[in-house]
Amino acid sequence: MSYAPHDFGGPISPDEVDLSVDLCGVALPNPVMTASGCAAAGRELDQFFDVAELGAIVTKSIMLNPRSGRATPRMAETPSGMLNSIGLQGPGIDAFLARDLPWLVQRGARAVVSIAGDKPADYVELARRVGQAPGVAAIEVNISCPNVENRGLVFACDAESSYRVIEECRPHIPDDIPVFAKLTPDVTDIATIAGAVADAGADGVTVINTLLGLTMDPDTLRPRLGGVTGGLSGPAVRPVAVRAVWQIRKALPDLPILGVGGIRTGFDALEFVLAGADAVQVGTVIFNDPGAPMRVVRELRDELAVRGIRSLDTVRNAAHG
Amino acid sequence: MSATQSAGTVVSRTPVGDYHHLVIAAEGIAEHARPGHFVALAIGGVDSGMLLRRAFSIYRTSTTGRHGETVEIVFAAHGKGTRWMADLAPGDPIDVVGPVGRPFALPKEPVSCVLVGGGYGSAPMFSLATALRDRGCPAHLVLGAATTPRLFGLSDANKVGSSVHVTTEDGSTGTRGRVTDVLGDLVDTTDAAVVYACGPMGMLRAVADVAEDNGAWSQCAVEESMACGIGVCMTCVLPVEGEDGIVRMVRSCVDGPVFRGDRVRWDAVGTIPPGTLGGPR
């Protein structure tokens, strides 16, 4: 089966391309964000690009209490990707609200705060506290971190658990702060989970979190990671992520989607938009190229210009047509 | 302190014993580099399937050579990434982030110091020795390795060291044994106030112990594998006790790589020791 290629006309100047996005009422200058867990809380990346120029900074998932994370080794390089078992190391919500969030807001960045908990009550408390903090552009609810002791705690593996977390925390977040649920692709039908969180009051979804993986050490003949299993990310997972966006878009034509998984170039970002993403996130590739998020913005602009595409609205979902 | 990402170019790559000495022309790094800083190199070019940066202590820098600003490192080709580096040729592009990390802390008083380098861990010790002697601190060097081809920088050592001591485990050069076999006496006889060390974790732990037993401070540059080198990935953590007595998992890339040896929980590296802030309860 073959499709006729899309034709949007001849090349235009990159200056004529409008990359701005209205994400559930939040105005973004461009659709590129950092992915949670790959940018800390933005400060370290500010030496490589102006964090206020990027669409948004998504923080590392913040939890109620300080957390040490898992034992090392926490990372293993795999073909075009990596496995990690960081285990949500972080300072806890008090230190985050006192130190990290004010810096991002004062810096002029759009701050998307990712929250994670061990039980629904944790999410409720985090939602309440982050929802009241000044300057939060959006909240991403991480219900899919694979690096927890008990797979039963990966809420996003189950539609009912996903629904419960979002339903319980949504009322504690002001209506003008959009809430995105971050989903795992390690499920039978990701569109069902997306439908459940949308029914529970999520404004949109972020897809995908890492895939659960395992790799062995050639010297010890045992798992290479201290946490045994880890989350697979990087360009290796990109087709899985684009597929997940595509499936959710097909099932839920109006649900805002943040596409994430292995984006390295401007065209990679465009792939997600064609599949139906409203905005995208750059993650693991930051470790390879700390300037990648703004490079992807520039390259995306060029990819659109060379094809004569003036705005993202023109091409969003275009691959479905 | 701020790091720069620089599109570098290989000036030269020279085999030295079992190692390679790599000179990279890269702007914005040399003038800010201090002894103990490192650089994080991208491996395999822009489309590489190897995504994680490799971190190397800076051997030396120059801002005045005919290649402009240069930064130099020493590496062993022991993995996929470093084997790619071992094929680098003059003119090849290589992306450099640096200088990164906290450098060695220098004494305010003109006290005697001992500098220990294990294998190519000696690389940062020569610029450190120069910096120390510039402020009136005698800098006694100890280089150790399993065997002679794995010693690095003996001629540098002879140029900059107040004294030079070499150990090899096979006895092929210097004293047969390990750096710690000569360290205690040296700290004693030189009345050293500080021991600086860079090398494998096992050596650092032993050096920190010897320093403490002999009444000296130690400053250890650790070698933890990193993914980003800039403080965002939380991969390169190790347990370190703060001044408040609380153990935290801290990032060796930006909170280190240089730590006070008596602060690192060497016995617990690779674990989350009981009592760590935010540890499992």
From TrEMBL, chain A:
Top EC class for this record: oxidoreductase
Binding-site positions, FMN: 36, 60-61, 142, 182, 208, 234, 261-262, 283-284
Function description: Catalyzes the conversion of dihydroorotate to orotate.
Keywords attached to this entry: Cytoplasm, Flavoprotein, FMN, Oxidoreductase, Pyrimidine biosynthesis
Pfam family, any one: DHO_dh
Lineage: Bacteria, Bacillati, Actinomycetota, Actinomycetes, Propionibacteriales
InterPro entries according to UniProt: Aldolase_TIM, DHO_dehydrogenase, DHOD_1B, Dihydroorotate_DH_1, Dihydroorotate_DH_1_2, Dihydroorotate_DH_cat, Dihydroorotate_DH_CS, Dihydroorotate_DH_I
Positions annotated as active site in the UniProt record: 145 (nucleophile)
Tree of life domain: Bacteria
GO CC annotation, single: cytoplasm
Record: residues binding substrate: 60, 84-88, 142, 209-210
Cofactor: FMN
Stated name of the protein: Dihydroorotate dehydrogenase
Keyword Repressor: no
Catalytic activity: (S)-dihydroorotate + A = orotate + AH2
Family recorded in the similarity comment: Belongs to the dihydroorotate dehydrogenase family. Type 1 subfamily.
Single annotated GO MF: dihydroorotate dehydrogenase activity
Pathway: Pyrimidine metabolism; UMP biosynthesis via de novo pathway
Residue span(s) of domain Dihydroorotate dehydrogenase catalytic: 19-304
Biological process terms in GO annotation: 'de novo' pyrimidine nucleobase biosynthetic process; 'de novo' UMP biosynthetic process
Bound cofactor: record note: Binds 1 FMN per subunit.
UniProt-listed Enzyme Commission number(s): 1.3.-.-
Localization in the cell: Cytoplasm
UniProtKB/TrEMBL annotation, chain B:
One Pfam family matching this protein: NAD_binding_1
GO MF: 2 iron, 2 sulfur cluster binding; flavin adenine dinucleotide binding; metal ion binding; oxidoreductase activity
Residues annotated for FAD binding in this entry: 54-57, 81-82
Residues of the FAD-binding FR-type domain: 3-106
Record-linked InterPro entries: Cyt_c3_hydrogenase_gsu, Dihydroorotate_DH_ele_sf, Dihydroorotate_DH_Fe-S-bd, FAD-bd_FR_type, FNR_nucleotide-bd, OxRdtase_FAD/NAD-bd, PyrK_electron_transfer, Riboflavin_synthase-like_b-brl
Keywords, sorted A to Z: 2Fe-2S, Electron transport, FAD, Flavoprotein, Iron, Iron-sulfur, Metal-binding, Transport
Cofactor(s) needed: [2Fe-2S] cluster; FAD
Highest taxon listed in the record's lineage: Bacteria
Record PROSITE patterns: FAD_FR
GO BP annotations listed: pyrimidine nucleotide biosynthetic process
Co-factor binding comment: Binds 1 FAD per subunit.
Family per similarity comment: Belongs to the PyrK family.
Protein name: Dihydroorotate dehydrogenase electron transfer subunit
Organism: Mumia zhuanghuii
